[in-house]
Amino acid sequence: MRTRPWAALAACIVALAAGVPAARADIGRFDLRRPEIRRFVREVARRDSLSRRRILRLLARARPQPQIIERMSRPAERALEWWEYRQIFVTGERIAEGVTFWRDHREVLERVARDHGVPPEYLVAIVGCETFYGRDTGRDRVLDSLATLAFDYPPRGEYFRRELEQFLLLVREDHLDPLSVKGSYSGAMGAPQFMPSAYRRYAVDESHDHHRDLWSDWADVFASVANYLRQNGWRPGDPVLADAKLDPEADFQLDARGLDVATLDELNEHGVRVELALPGSTPAVLIPADAADGPAYRVGFDNFLALMRYNRSASYAMAVTELAQSLAERMHAAGASRDAQRAGDARGRRNARSSVPSV
Question: Does domain 85-135+231-235+313-333 have CATH number 1.10.530.10?
Answer without folding.
Answer: yes
